[in-house]
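pipeline/complex-builder :: batch 7 item 3
reading input block
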Amino acid sequence: MTSTALSPEPPASWRRYFGFSTDAKVIGIQYIVVAFFFFLVGGLLAMIMRGELITPEADLVDRTVYNGLYTMHGTIMLFLFIFPVLNGLNNLLIPTMIGAPDMAFPRLNTAAFWLVPVFGILLIASFFVPSGPATSGWWSYPPVSLQNPLGHLINGEFLWVLAVALSGVSSIMGAVNFVTTILRMRAPGMGFFRMPVFCWTALAAQTLQLIGLPALTGGAVMLLLDLSVGTSFYRPEGGGDPVLYQHFFWFYSHPAVYVIILPVFGIFSELFPVYSRKPLFGYVYVCLASFIIVGLGLIVWVHHMFPSGVTQWMRNLFMVTTMLIAVPTGVKVFAWLGTMWNGKIRLTTPMLFCMGGLFNFVFAGITGIMLATVPIDIHVSNTYFVVGHFHYVIYGAAVMGVFAAIYHWFPKFTGRMPYEGLGKLHFLLTFVGANLNFLPMHPLGLMGMPRRVSSYDPEFAFWNVLASLGAFLLGVSIIPFLLNMISSWARGPRATHNPWNAIGLEWLLPSPPAEDNFGEHVPTVISRPYGYGTGEPLVEHQAEIERALTLQEANR
Amino acid sequence: MSSTPVPPASPSGAYGEGQHANHNLTGFIIFLCSESVIFLAFFSGYALLRLSALDWLPAGVDGLEWRMPLINTVVLVSSSFTMVVAEHFKGKGKIWLFRGFWLLTMAMGAYFLYGQAVEWSGLTFGFTSGTFGGTFYLLTGFHGLHVLTGILLMGLMLVKSFVPGNYAGGEEGVIATSLFWHFVDVIWIILFVLLYVWRA
């Protein structure tokens, strides 16, 4: 291996992060930074809501404002935080993990990213239109969403549908790109069963996007026509059917949960082996389980509609399919536990986030099975039990997994090490905050407190105060994270090419990698990933490549 | 590795350049699969609304006239065959015959759109005439947009055929356009059955 194989230093100018770059690594960081901006916006809305709920009376904000708050909180967190942040990780990790120089369609990639600020601004702008933002919840069910009392053509709901449709276009562009890249641009020797699990889960998640999103887009177009043109697809008075919208919405939006959690499963599967120094337990089964989740995930959506007047046979069928999802998911959970079993566990910040995320995920899985049961679901539907369940999934598991990924791959893409102390403080605040915030929602739901209300019976006050304290703690938890990211990127210790002693193609690149990653010198993969403790090399000439990288680091 | 003399790393994009067109086709096929789901959503929405409707036809509407759409259907389906003929001649290197049949396909697509416009202008119901009117215009309009896109894509490929050397190494754009056109064709056949053949 000659030194020309490793391109020296990447273009160092920070200005590339503010332009229309086509480099997947730049776009990835752009995605993540923009996503965290919207995370702060969505988080602020959540703080206001929890501030309102700290007392039983509606005293902090007006009821209509409160309706807008939860609608926008949900929409922003899903379409402007979690999807973009995961697409950012996809952009950073997929090409480097499979040894591709870039995505298959770099310009399409740029366009997909720049749509995010466009629909983000569109959504935020709805706060400033005369009739205020959309107030019908993040699912926008008709007939509530079709009410337009002020009669403006440009109203909050209109902007909401437009933003969601644009988000769909952006996600489809991304999905076509990711799937094509994974299918066609893998390094020589990297068959599907030598591919890192993160790429498997990304492939599975993006397949779900391709199948599910068009249904939501179609449903949203019909909603927009009902709202603005006066058709009656969902208007019962014109022969339409509001439940039809629910089918369109959940046909996508339930699989959307798997679009979110599958890449996080990928992150767990990457990180547990690194910090346990053991190969991933049951690699092949973990890979295949992702696609079983895709298949089953597409036929469970009616469980969101058990109280919506669907027939009994549909309830029974979808209850069973929903419970079946626990099988492939359980395969993964046991694979991670099996990986950690008797491993040499290193409690670094990313590992702590993974373990915390796994803990929360198992809890969310248990309440998920409870919710799949028709009688329980009808009892707790639209209560805080549901809110608690999905916040455990999204915040407790997915967001913590995203934090784990950020701490783990931060050195690779910035060339700097994050600070461990601040990272562990961030973990502690997040884990305690999330559980304090979301655990009390379960007793609240069982007691019968409905979601989406700004005032409640005083008997619910105790648990609500606890939840609000947890929410404020979560708000505080983001401070050490931001401090850590900014200060360690600016002047953290220089990272070596493989600071965690991990195995994977991305760790055979310099930190940060050159613009075209391996360029023309893509190594040939000769074994399965996660060969920890086996001493097996991952690629041909691995020792030479690592020696050259170490030499390069010693000379800088 | 040091035994193989390595040329200096070239700027980005050098890797897999020869396969790039192939990526385009892969990406396009993936996109088409995804696009078919939106039609599937509209079809199932139509079927669900129609099956659950008490009075499917609005007052004063007797249903749809099927003769003119049938002619339209025949024209559109035949255009898939003229397109296959065009591609056959492209494969044989007879570029002018390719252009001729390609243009014929475009003309047949344009005739379909014309026929659709004539049909729309003669109808007694509108977009807001209940779910019957809504689904009819939504389905035919959305399909019509795809026909228009197909014609524009064909026009683009026709213009590109005059660029010297463009078709020397096999043109993926022509394959993609033809896949799109067959897709639009199949969608129409399903639409025709759902809208005109299916009687209450």
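note: Chain A touches chain B through 56 residues (CB under 8 Å).
queue -> next item
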